[in-house]
């Protein structure tokens, strides 16, 4: 089951999204090993460091309801949860396999995760649902970034925060310091 494409999506965009779902569903069970993703202190520190770059005034209090868009296997959300940033954990991804893997990883870590298969360009949540919306290393998968970023704002509570981080690459790492 794939996430529905936004109303009016052109066929080329729909084909790209279908390919993303197929690939990430296929990769979901081996993705963490492939990319050296873990949920240990090394990755907790990395995720928290990226989060503090995006939200430098965080006071150490967990955000009550947190959504990660483009969650993949839960790397960012679950490591932030272990670092004390996340209260109630929610995740969404266009890939059902990734959402299921994120939920399984959460269960293994003792973190309840509420997963929802959804397109970041058409989030299925009511306005003012989340105190924090984050994303990590997913924007390169999104055909229409303007729509995706606009879609994230309404689901934030009035004083909610929006944070994100780019992938750690020779080019992306310096850019992540600017998020």
Task: Write up what this structure looks like.
By secondary structure, the chain is of the alpha/beta class. The longest helix has 17 residues.
**SSE order, one letter for each helix or strand:** HHHEHEHEEHEH
Q: What helical percentage do the residues reach?
A: 25-40%
Topology-level CATH name: Rossmann fold
What is the CATH H-level superfamily?
A: Vaccinia Virus protein VP39
Annotation, overall tally of beta strands = 5
What are the defining features of this structure?
Rossmann fold; 5-stranded parallel sheet; 7 helices; 39% helix; 21% strand; globular
Blueprint of the fold:
Layout: H1 11-27, H2 31-34, H3 41-54, E1 63-69, H4 75-82, E2 86-93, H5 96-109, E3 113-117, E4 130-136, H6 145-152, E5 156-165, H7 172-176
Parallel strand pairs: 1-2, 1-4, 2-3, 4-5
Helix pairs in contact: 3-4
Short structural description:
By secondary structure, the protein is of the alpha/beta class. The chain is built from seven helices and five strands.
């Amino acid at each position: 089951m794939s996430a529905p494409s936004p109303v009016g999506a052109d066929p080329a965009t729909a084909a790209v999204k279908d390919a993303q779902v197929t690939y990430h569903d296929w990769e979901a069970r081996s993705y963490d090993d492939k990319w050296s993703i873990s949920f240990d202190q090394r990755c907790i520190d990395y995720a928290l460091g990226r989060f503090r770059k995006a939200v430098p005034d965080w006071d150490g209090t967990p955000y009550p309801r947190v959504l990660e868009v483009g969650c993949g296997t839960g790397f960012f959300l679950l490591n932030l949860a272990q670092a004390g940033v996340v209260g109630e954990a929610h995740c969404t991804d266009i890939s059902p396999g990734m959402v299921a893997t994120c939920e399984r990883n959460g269960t293994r870590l003792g973190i309840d995760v509420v997963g929802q298969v959804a397109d970041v360009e058409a989030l299925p949540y009511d306005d003012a649902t989340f105190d924090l919306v984050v994303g990590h290393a997913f924007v390169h998968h999104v055909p229409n970034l303007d729509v995706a970023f606009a879609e994230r704002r309404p689901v934030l509570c009035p004083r909610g925060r929006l944070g994100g981080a780019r992938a750690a690459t020779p080019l992306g790492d310096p850019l992540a310091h600017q998020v």
